[in-house]
Write a structure and sequence with these properties.
The N terminus and C terminus are likely disordered. The protein has 26 helices and two strands. It has a two-stranded antiparallel ribbon. The longest helix has 35 residues. Helix content is 68%, strand content 1%. By secondary structure, it is mainly alpha-helical. The two termini are 40 Å apart. A hairpin with an 8-residue loop joins strand 1 and strand 2.
Length: 681
């Protein structure tokens, strides 16, 4: 059978002559109070939901499309006259919270991990930097969020004309284009919004009964000690993971499950088997304080002391490879971006006078960009208790711009999901650590300064991808870029104020490190990887053998032609998280294999994306509410912990079977809803 021919690369379309939905000469309502208020509310909602999702499961979901749909429904329900540009502003502000949550949760919890690690040697230094809590205050988290977010917004301003306008027809910007289509199709907005709200309602009720009231258990597991000692089959039967699996699709979900299967059904039983043949029966874990014999370790202990470090090594190598894969894009983007920026300041340039520029081509002045970046660098030098050297501040600025260019180009080509944020942050951390060590920094002070720089860069990169998609939506609709760029700061401000409180609530309720107070902490895989890498760079005495072995596994997966990052994340996370994600991926596959018209299948899939996004948001928001109750109410905390086991829920021994039955029912209902609902329309 002959191989299908590759489609030729699309030729650029003259973006300067593109006619948007709202002509440049029209002046209709755009930035209004109702749009600002609704956008701010949605940004906080999606920001908190994605913060919980990222810390518990290691991933976020795009909020751009759900924000656009919810904007359509809410504004049309409350107001008679609503313009497409008002809806665009709501979507622009509302989607920013999700991107900020990703940047924060990938890095900030690393500070909490260091403070909670019992074997960490220099606790007094953390106390000297951050005070008695030994972790950044909510105010400092807010400040770092604003610094990184501001860099991301400012650096995207001079890139807009090249990436969004000049490359029109070459860069697809899938989320941004989809949002524009949804907003234009105003008559469909109400029916599409029902999918999001229905999903939110189902996800919230499901999560509240399961996790809040504890009617049935959330986590189920079966140990295989009789024939595969050390192995375990498990599932966390939550609606959020099912929805995430549908959004990710079968390929990525399968990669994650393959990593989990290798770790928990392959390597863990092998370690247990080897432990049974040691001469004295003991084997000290490479990173643990205990002395449990290897052959007697439980599956949880094998994960804590071995598999987790394999996953960290795999995530690190997978992130680097993703960054190397983007090297041609980096070179091309820099060449074109710098040429586009400097051409505006040449004599006779169209950009020299704002008066001659049409409404749909007006950006914030470049002097604002330079001044804003300078303010960010100065503020970084004076962060309370953190010794940021001059070169480290410069590194944050340089790496911030470098990776903003890369991230914006990548999301234009393949969307936000595949942007190698982890790899770019890891590269920033290692280079910053080298710079600081060369200037004499060492120990905990150097670690804190390095992670601070990495936090700012990571947030900038995450925000820039969202901003690039938003600007593409505005370009297609005929929005004013300057107004979008200004309102992005509102989308940054409100979730930034909520993030610090959210991190503290989740840490108090669940923690990020296994301890007597938190036996089942949130996983925070990216933050754990960042904490490990920085600690290693400053001589943290880490178990390099499993870390390097995990990196070699990721390399082997890459040599097979498979993206190793989702595989490594699956190996890091417990198997219980990968199995429900794979279930959602199977539903995705079933929808797409249906023998029907492509148009109908596409409509089913879009319904599934919106419904799944709602499920994820409803589950995550209730999860944060439950965490707040656990952290703030001792009687509820006692009730919560007393019914946390597999057979200690209100349904007792029937709980596991009921939990699986309800999870299966959710899958069957989703399948029928995605398909049968369409036939009735």
């Amino acid at each position: 059978m002959a191989e299908p021919q590759q489609s030729p690369k699309p030729a650029p379309i003259d973006g300067n002559n593109f006619q948007p939905y709202v002509p440049a000469g029209s002046n209709i309502a755009e930035v209004t109070m109702k749009a600002l208020v609704l956008g701010a509310i949605l940004s906080v909602v999606f920001g908190i939901a994605n913060a919980y999702l990222a810390l518990k499961y290691g991933m976020t979901v795009s909020a751009s499309i759900p924000a656009a749909v919810m904007s359509m429904a809410i504004l049309r329900a409350l107001f008679k006259n609503v313009t497409v540009l008002e809806n665009n502003i709501v979507q622009t502000i509302g989607s920013a919270g999700e991107s900020l949550a990703a940047g924060i949760t990938f890095t900030i919890p690393a500070f909490f991990i260091w403070a909670a690690e019992p074997k960490f040697a220099a606790m007094r230094e953390l106390q000297e930097i951050f005070g008695p809590s030994q972790v950044p205050s909510a105010w400092l988290i807010f400040l770092l969020s604003m610094l990184g977010g501001t860099l991301g917004i400012l650096f995207m301003i001079p890139l807009r004309r090249y990436l969004v306008q000049k490359e029109h027809g070459v860069l697809a910007f899938p989320e941004g284009t989809a949002c524009a289509e949804i907003i234009v199709a105003g008559e469909e907005g109400g029916s599409k919004a029902k999918n999001v709200f229905l999903g939110m309602g189902i996800g919230a009720v499901y999560k509240f009964l399961m996790n809040g009231v504890r009617v049935w258990p959330e986590s189920l597991e079966m140990h295989l000690n009789k024939f595969l000692k050390g192995g375990v089959i498990s599932i966390e039967a939550t609606p959020a993971l099912f929805g995430v699996g549908y959004i990710l699709g079968p390929r990525v979900a399968g990669y994650m499950l393959s990593g989990a299967v290798l770790g928990y059904l392959g390597i863990a039983p092998l370690l247990s088997f080897i432990g049974g043949f040691l001469a004295d029966g003991t084997f000290i874990p490479p990173a643990g304080p205990g002395d449990t014999p290897l052959g007697q370790m439980s599956s949880d202990e094998l994960r804590e002391f071995y598999i987790r470090y394999l996953g960290i090594g795999g995530v690190s190598v997978g992130g680097f490879i993703a960054l190397l894969r983007a090297a041609p894009t980096i070179a091309h983007s820099f060449k074109e971006a710098f040429g586009q920026i400097f051409s505006r300041f040449m004599p006779g340039s169209k950009g020299a006078s704002d008066e001659s520029v049409t409404r749909t081509d007006r950006d914030l002045p470049f002097t604002w960009v330079l001044g804003g970046v300078l303010v960010v660098v100065i503020v970084m030098f004076f962060l309370p208790g953190i010794d940021i050297k001059f070169m480290a501040g410069v590194a944050a600025t340089v790496f911030g711009f470098l990776f903003v260019v890369v991230a914006a180009r990548i999301v234009g080509e393949i969307g936000s999901t595949n942007s190698p944020v982890s790899g770019m942050t890891i590269a920033t951390l290692l280079v910053t650590a080298f710079i600081l060590m060369s200037t004499g920094a060492s120990g905990v002070y150097g670690m804190v300064a390095t992670l601070t720089v990495g936090t700012v860069v990571c947030i900038a990169v995450c925000m820039s991808g969202d901003i690039a998609q938003d600007l593409k939506t505005g370009y297609l609709l005929g929005a004013t870029p300057r107004k979008q760029q200004l309102t992005e700061f509102i989308g940054l401000l409100f979730p930034a104020a909520a993030m610090g409180m959210t991190i503290y609530i989740l840490n108090d309720a669940f923690g990020f490190v296994v301890s007597p107070e938190h036996p089942n902490p949130l996983q925070a895989p990216q933050a754990n990887a960042m904490a490990t890498i920085v600690q290693a760079a400053f001589g943290g005495g880490l178990p390099w053998a499993p870390i390097l072995a995990g990196g070699m596994m990721a390399l082997a997966i890459e040599l097979l032609g498979i993206r190793s990052l989702p595989f490594a994340i699956g190996m890091y996370l417990p198997l219980s998280l990968s199995t429900p994600i794979f279930a959602g991926g199977i539903l995705h596959w079933m929808i797409h294999r249906s023998k029907t018209e492509e148009k109908t299948t596409k409509a089913w899939h879009q319904r599934g994306i919106l419904f799944s996004s709602g499920i994820v948001a409803g589950d995550a928001l209730v999860g944060v509410m439950v965490a707040a109750l656990v952290a703030g109410n001792e009687s509820y905390q006692s009730y919560f912990e007393a019914h946390a086991g597999m057979t200690t829920s209100l349904l007792g021994s029937y709980g596991p079977a009921i939990s699986l039955a309800i999870f299966t029912t959710l899958g069957l209902y989703s399948y029928r809803y995605f398909k049968l609902k369409r036939k009735s329309q």
